[in-house]
Design goal:
alpha/beta; Rossmann fold; 2 domains; six-stranded mixed beta sheet; four-stranded antiparallel beta sheet; 14 strands
Length: about 300
């Protein structure tokens, strides 16, 4: 559904996107992750025909984003990070206006509007002016506009940004419903959102794709060995130094320090260091409060790849 080859964007001397290549298959939900300024929004703007690339090529639904831009736009639904809504319009008026811009005739768009009002849970606010809606409902209106013409592909840029936890959950549930019928490219900085909602994740850093795979695969690739979470009553520096000397321990990270209490993470390649960690605590009379095998998260992957 989306084919990107050596896509590059320069703003003067600034290289915003650096020869990016990837594909997205029909029916996939792909999360685009990256720190601020990594190039996420720039990429989405090029895929939607909002701006041309400096180099490279991209196809959406087999149409070139530059030479066949109108064909691309007919087949995508786009919700930008800043949701562009006319606040003086009522919800129904806004959807009707969008339908006319899309070239839909009244005989067709009346039913389409009713359908998206139902899908996006807008029935209770359909007659209200957008100026009087909460941000959560405004995002719902933006999604309704994006899917009104029943596009094959949805491109969503930070769809839950700025929402409270309840509103975020409402929008995520809506996306879960939509993904059953469409190909979705979802830009987000909320890692838990990507882990639960996406089949695959692309991590972009400084304009380059630095990881591509399922959340589980990326976590497994980072986790080349084992990790042990250890909480005990001990002086922090002494405990950290002592555990770093255990054979097989590659790295000891101080996670938390309090008065006479410390939380450490022990990383090892193929060695089970639990017994040695226990014996060391006994030798030093450090009471163990917790010892738990710890798994790597998508957040760990993100930090590891984007902090380099």
């Amino acid at each position: 559904m989306i084919e990107v080859s050596q896509l590059t964007k320069k703003y003067g001397a600034t290289l915003a996107l650096d020869h990016v290549t990837f594909t997205i298959q029909p029916g996939e939900v792909v999360g685009l992750l990256g720190p601020n300024g990594a190039g996420k929004t720039t990429m989405l703007k090029m895929l939607t025909g909002y701006m041309p690339p400096t180099e490279g090529a991209a196809k959406v639904a087999h149409f070139d984003v530059v030479d066949q831009s109108l064909d691309v736009r007919r087949r995508i639904g786009y919700l930008p990070e800043t949701n562009p809504l006319y606040e003086e319009l009522a919800v129904y008026e806004s959807l009707e206006w969008t339908a006319r811009l899309r070239g839909m005739v009244p005989a067709v768009y009346a039913g389409a509007i009713r359908k998206v009002i139902d899908e996006c849970g807008l029935g209770s606010v359909v007659g209200k002016d957008i100026a009087h809606l909460s941000k959560g409902f405004r995002q719902r209106v933006g999604l309704a506009q994006a899917i009104l013409h029943d596009p094959e592909i949805l491109i969503l840029d930070e769809p839950t940004s700025g929402l409270d936890p309840n509103q975020q959950q409402e929008v995520r549930q809506l996306i879960q419903t939509l993904k059953q019928k469409k190909t979705v490219l979802l830009s987000t900085h909320i890692l838990s959102e990507a882990q639960t909602a996406c089949d695959r994740v692309l991590i972009i850093n400084k304009g380059k794709i630095v990881a591509d795979g399922t959340p589980d695969l990326l976590r497994q690739n980072l986790s080349k060995g084992r990790r042990l979470l250890l909480e005990l009553k001990a002086p922090a520096s002494a405990a950290q130094d002592a555990y770093a000397k255990i054979p097989g321990v590659d790295r000891v990270t101080l996670q938390k320090e309090a008065i006479s209490q410390v939380v450490l993470t022990l990383e090892s390649r193929d060695t089970d260091v639990r017994e040695a960690a226990f014996n060391l605590a006994v030798e030093n009379r450090w009471p163990i409060l917790q010892m738990t095998p710890d798994s790597f998260s998508l957040e760990d992957v993100f930090r590891e790849l984007t902090a380099r």
